[in-house]
Amino acid sequence: MPRKHSAADAPLRLDNQICFAVYSAAHAFNRVYKPLLDRLGLTYPQYLVMLVLWERDDVPVKDIGEKLHLDSGTLTPLLKRLEAAHLVKRTRSSEDERQVLIALTPQGQALKDKARAVPQSILAASDCSVSELVAMKDEIVALRDRLNAVIGE
Amino acid sequence: MPRKHSAADAPLRLDNQICFAVYSAAHAFNRVYKPLLDRLGLTYPQYLVMLVLWERDDVPVKDIGEKLHLDSGTLTPLLKRLEAAHLVKRTRSSEDERQVLIALTPQGQALKDKARAVPQSILAASDCSVSELVAMKDEIVALRDRLNAVIGE
DNA sequence: TCACATTTAATTGTTCGCAATTGAATGTGG
DNA sequence: CCACATTCAATTGCGAACAATTAAATGTGA
To answer: How far is A90 from chain B (nearest CA, A)?
Structure first.
């Protein structure tokens, strides 16, 4: 009775790993987003930062980091690039000089209108109903939060 | 009737984006994996390459790239680091000298036994039944494949 | 056979992502 | 008031990830 794989190896098989499903799905999203975001002059992580700022402007770096689960080592250079692109302004808070507040420029605000086309294109590319996507999103978020709970945050 | 957000903005809200759910879940996985893989001396992408090689040894770089959706720009330096760690051997194929074949060293093979503990720890961290995880994985893979179909691969 | 296209890795340059450290500003206990 | 810890952003260094290019090997058609 020949077997291609040992049963003991099943947990190590690539196709059985949910982490690889998530990892490769994230890269697939990135590739779908790329041509859309190129038109806005943004990378995907930059787009995420803009999403945060379009919801609430003039926030410290730390708040952005908490929402996106990113630290200053990632955000500081990214925000400097957004500033070089004239989409945001970085200013030290006068109340607390440790903080740097990130505010949208008029161009940064204006980009929001062009960005509205993006979620529509992604929905189309997903080839899936909105309700299915919402259900999946909620499941994935729940899993993510359980993982984050383990590493204590 | 004051509203915090315009309904027209709903598609742009961070928490409504499945892509961000996937993106942040991938990073959460990475953080859970990190202490486990540190013990093996591997990064997460290196672990993925080892998973491929533990299933099938002595494969060209291109095959690894197709399974993991990565290109030579990512894999070449990664494989050189695995070679420097004495886990793999890189040799030009004699039949087709364009190809570089990746083979496990005895140490690379031996690492598989230490790696068996990893999926168990991840399962525990997920705080979720195996059947639920399998169902989620299949959904995410299906979504990923639909996205990949759009960008043509 | 020979020009030409294709395939395969490697290389270069840019941007993330994170650990670890630094330095300045702020908060706190004695 | 002052030593001390904490907070916050910036910096440094390393490892992905990918686009674009290069170079060598191989395949193909006239």
So the answer is: 22
* CA–C1' gap, A99 and C25, in angstroms: 9
Domains of chain B listed by start with CATH number: 19-115 (1.10.10.10)
**What number of CA atoms fall less than 13 Å from residue A119's CA on the CB side?**
19
Reference A26, options B66, B81, B26; nearest CA is B26
Cα A58 to Cα A68: distance, rounded to the nearest angstrom? 16
Interval A95-122: pLDDT, tens:
999 999 999 999 999 999 999 999 999 9
Q: What is the DSSP string of B48-73?
A: HHHHHHHHS-SEEHHHHHHHHT--HH
* Chain B positions in Cβ-Cβ contact with residue A52 (cut-off 8 Å): 14
| B151: three-class secondary structure by DSSP | coil
Read off the pLDDT of residues B23-59 as tens digits, 9 standing for 90 and up: 999 999 999 999 999 999 999 999 999 999 999 999 9
Kind and range of the H or E element at A88? strand A88-92
Q: Where are the alpha helices (DSSP H) in B56-116?
A: 61-68, 72-84, 106-115
